[in-house]
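queue> holo job accepted (MV4)
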Amino acid sequence: MFNKVLIANRGEIALRVIRACRELGLQTVAVYSEADRDSLHVRFADDDVCIGPPPSRDSYLNIPRLIAAAEITGADAIHPGYGFLAENAEFAETCAASNVVFIGPTAAQIRVMGDKAAARNAMAAAGVPIIPGSPGPVDDADEALTLAREIGFPVIIKAAAGGGGKGMRVARDPEDFGRSFQLARSEALSAFGNGEVYVEKYLARPRHVEFQILGDTHGTVIHLGERDCSVQRRHQKLIEEAPSPAVDRELRARMGEAAVRGASSIGYTGAGTIEMLLDTDGSFYFMEMNTRIQVEHPVTEMLTGVDLVKEQIRVAAGERLSVRGLPAPRGHVIECRVNAEDPARNFQPCPGKIAVFHPPGGPGVRLDTHVYAGYTVPPYYDSLLAKLICEGRTREEALRRMQIALESFIIEGIPTTIPFLARVMANPRFMAGEVDTKFLEREPELMKEPVPAAVA
Ligand code: MV4
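queue> job finished
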């Protein structure tokens, strides 16, 4: 087992990893930019290193500085968290070359899953259902149109180097195709420096259902059930829940078996997530594989009782998984991401000083946050303030606890998405579990602050 772990991240996930390290009796090293000097992850770590000015490229994304921080503090492992360098194969390789263990999968596994077309092919080879589409990238418009006709319209054109919804264009019919194809290619080229695109059958109202995977270096690969992440805005997940209202035991077994088969086919080690699209007819298809711990990992932790971050650390140290399979499900879990954004102003980020902070609590309530009264949210990084997770014996109980927790969650000094989240939790379609990836598109009034009732 390691002696000292450097957390190459900030915010709530840095605190989360520090907690897991402390439970395992490991020393911790925090790295921080000048903007994060007063952050709690610096305060709670055993050691800390300032790695540069606020811009991420000069701090949290700066590989030489992170490796140097590990060397001067004697860290023998690095946990990348999520975002930043968590899925950067070069970082994983540089750690290995510097004799620092990268807590995550191998660079090769990161690389293959980072190329969306290569990932599709790897999954297809493992017999995982993939969305009907082109066998690989297509660069000729006429060839692509012929493929689209074979697949059947509507089709979606996706960037091979893309992901997270960037560089995607839907073509409704042959007349629409040429323009959509060229637009997707030019967007992919400008966004990723790689204009390669591929064509898929377009699913009109899919759910985003993802399976949590754990693999160790002794050949064991398991899944820990699914999370339904369909409530998204511009491909940013806002609300996640488990189990999915649309997945029953039989479907869970089939999807889970496919997810494990896909991960096993590349000998996956560590924590990972197989993202799938679940169509309205119950058919499911591989979408992407994330080779990191995800923001929404607490949903699975609260449903299964498995500490995913401790599992990551144990696996990286060569130990076996401490869980052998999916524990008997217990109840229901919902997570809301609380962001420093203003729903009334198109969710624009609102950094600034938090004047008042009162966290919710009570049975079944977990809050993962790094903020506190007096903390100043910096403008340089993502706007996540906290993850509020509520569990219950039933979905109704988890939902009720979430509604009450949101009402008692006080943050003053900056706008937050709490009022918006409270509206979603009271929305009849959400309460009925009738959501898919277009849910927010169909409920535009959720984005608007209700006009205060006229004073009589
Ligand atoms: C799709 C799709 C429908 N059909 N692919 C969005 C981001 C990236 N992960 C892939 N995405 C989609 N791919 C086919 N063939 C719809 C989406 C999609 C989506 C997927 C999951 C969660 C939210 C979404 C929002 C818009 C579109």
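queue> The chain has 15 helices and 22 strands.
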